[in-house]
Structure formats: structure tokens, C-alpha cells
Amino acid sequence: MADRSRRAPERVTHVVMTHLHADHVGWNTTWQDNRWVPTFPNARYYLPKDDFVFCDEGRNKEPGVVDVFGESFFDSVMPVVNEGLAEMMMPGQEIAGCLQVESAVGHSPGQVVFRARSHGEEAIFCGDILHSPLQIVLPQVNSGYCIRPDLARSTRLSFLNQAADSEALILPVHFGEPYCGYVRRQVPASPSNRPRGSNGTGCRTSMAPRACAPFRHTPHYRSRAGGYDRGSMSLPRDQQHAGSL
Ligand SMILES: [Zn+2]
Prior knowledge:
The chain is an alpha/beta fold. It folds into two domains: 1-89, no CATH class; 120-245, no CATH class. It contains six helices and 14 strands. The strands form five sheets. The chain has a five-stranded mixed beta sheet with strand order 6-7-8-9-10, with no helix packed on it. The model is unreliable at 193-245 (pLDDT under 50). Bound molecules: zinc ion (ZN). Zinc ion is lined by residues 19, 21, 68, 107, 128, 145.
């Protein structure tokens, strides 16, 4: 995809970022004439505002902070800002008439996800809420890059509940092929297995993280010709009963 864009970068109109970690901003700029310039000169670049402010104030360099933004802020973010191509993005807005911006903070201070709807179906570009399929089964497990651990856990749990309830196609960044799939509970919610505190729409209740349990269930993540298996990623029954999805 990036290779195709390089052939006609001037045709790209929107560049969106879920967050500003170094591995999510690299195509913003290219090295030309001894300086970093925007790769897509006619695009608007949408930056999560709270991530930008965090880096702009140098808080990513404070002691004890795992700096996943690094020098990319200066070679891949600031050049598009300096060229006047940047838009500060906040949850609640819509981009390009098709992407709804929603808050997903925790992994980074201002991470967002993008929800697209078409013909009654939904897809969610979910950034780094998930780094591994393991986190679908054990939502309390953070990556080492989640800057606000408790918030990252609660955001992940809420997201997984939403994804299971809405049957939305999710597009995590770090899973590898087939790059997208669906979250499914192993058994449907019913009065007998619905946890206390549920609103009746499914297994949603306490967001309190649980101690890590042995990994006993392998989530399947597979594709079929012509589409993706809607039963692909399931959650173990005991997780549902505990209310942690
Ligand atoms: Zn990240």
C-alpha cells in the first residue's frame, strides 16, 4: 500500500494516526534534499491532540516514562506541523465523512480509534489497544508500551465488550495476517451466566483487572476465501463469567 502511495503521493488527501508512537508515524515524512518533508504534500495530517501536547511539552522525556515517541516526533511529526498540514484531532469529530474518532487513551495519552460504518456494518481501526491476540483472552495484560497501565486495561476491556456486542470488524495493527477479524464470546450471554451488574446486553460488568491466569485457550484468528470467519476470535467461558470478557 505504501509502495503504491509513493507512486502518487500527491493524490493522498487524508493521513490519520491513532497515536504518535514511533512505529505509527514513519510514513508521514520522507528524506529529501537533506531534510524531512511531508510524504503527501496535499494531505491533511490528523494528529491526536493529547499525544501531540504530551510530546510538545517534553513529558515523554521525563524520568520514569517509557518513551515510545522518541526522535520520531521531530522527524515525522513536527515537519508536517511546520508545513501547516497538521490538524489536531479530538474524540467526537468525523474525518473525511467516514471515520468517527473515538477515545482510546491509556496505551498513549491521546490514543484514538477510528470507526467506519457502511451498509449496516462497522469496522474499527483500533490502533494499539491490542498488541497481541493474547490480550483478547487476557485483557488485563498490557504491552510494555502502555504509558497509563490501569487506563489501558479499562479501555481494552471496554473496547472488547463493544466489539463483541456490535459484531464490528476490528483491525489491530500488530497482529499480522489476516490483519482483521471479529471478537466473539464463546457462549452467548444468558440470564444464567450473565454477571451481576450487567445491563442485559451481554457480559459486561466490573473492569477490575484479574491476576494473570495460565494461558489455557488459544484464540483462533483465521481467514476464509472471500471473507473472514466471523467466529474467529473467541473468549473462554470462565472469563465471561468473571465479567472480564
Ligand atoms: Zn503504540
